[in-house]
């Protein structure tokens, strides 16, 4: 399938193309979302079987090294919003997978895995590594390592850029009733 760019111009104005938007299938956010969905799906079956959502599994995995983490650090490491982490921590705590330790101040709580949480991690980790081996066998270990490095670099570059382009191109007019 050839991904054709979309002409962008003023509404109701044929032939006056002011710029070109790359095609949908060539869109970086769409490509990243599709790759994430396809790979996350490979890990979902075993986390579902353990009664963990993907975000809960990310939190358990982030806590597995044994270093107590606060909610902000967990949110950053797990690519989740802090309110989402706060909500899912309640479920993990109720199920006995994590425990809260006193933090450096009353508002900052530190979290660690319990023995029950560690047991769930140990089972999920074995299956996750088997899934990784399958992906590496199909994609190539070196290519997968390179991809992870490239995605890390892309994240770093994107985070360093301003929210709007350095140079804002002229925009087509919006309809008067917009």
The main β sheet shows up as: 3 strands, antiparallel
Strand content: 5-15%
Q: How many individual helices? A: 6
Question: How do the helices and strands follow one another from N- to C-terminus?
Answer: EEHHEHHEEHH
How helical, in percent, are the residues? Answer: 55-70%
First-residue to last-residue Cα separation: 35 Å
**CATH H level, superfamily name of one domain:** Winged helix-like DNA-binding domain superfamily/Winged helix DNA-binding domain
CATH class of one domain equals: Mainly Alpha
- Our Rg estimate from Cα atoms comes to 22 Å
Short description, anyone?
The chain is mainly alpha-helical and 178 residues long.
Can you describe what's shown?
The protein is mostly helical. It has a domain at 41-159: Arc Repressor Mutant, subunit A (Orthogonal Bundle), CATH 1.10.10.10. The protein is built from 6 helices and 5 strands, in the order ββααβααββαα. The chain has helices at 28-49, 54-63, 71-78, 82-94, 115-139, 141-160, and strands at 6-9, 17-21, 69-70, 98-101, 110-113. β4 (98-101) and β5 form a beta hairpin. The radius of gyration is 22 Å and the shape is globular.
Provide tags for this entry.
178 residues; mainly alpha; Arc Repressor Mutant, subunit A; three-stranded antiparallel beta sheet; two-stranded antiparallel ribbon; 6 helices; 5 strands; globular
């Amino acid at each position: 399938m050839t991904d054709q760019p979309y002409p962008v111009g003023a509404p109701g104005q044929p032939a006056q193309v002011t710029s070109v938007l790359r095609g949908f299938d060539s869109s970086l956010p769409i490509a990243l979302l599709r790759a994430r969905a396809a790979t996350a799906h490979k890990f979902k079956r075993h986390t579902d079987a353990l009664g963990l959502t993907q975000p809960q599994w990310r939190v358990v995995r982030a806590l597995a090294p044994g270093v107590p983490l606060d909610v902000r650090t967990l949110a950053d490491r797990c690519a989740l919003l802090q309110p989402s982490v706060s909500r899912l921590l309640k479920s993990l705590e109720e199920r006995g997978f994590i425990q809260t330790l006193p933090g450096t101040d009353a508002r900052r709580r530190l979290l660690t895995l319990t023995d029950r949480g560690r047991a769930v991690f140990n089972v999920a980790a074995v299956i996750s590594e088997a899934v990784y081996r399958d992906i590496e066998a199909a994609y190539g270990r070196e290519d997968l390592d390179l991809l992870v490095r490239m995605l890390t670099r892309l994240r770093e570059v994107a985070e360093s850029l301003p929210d709007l382009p350095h140079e804002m191109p002229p925009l087509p007019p919006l309809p008067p009733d917009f």
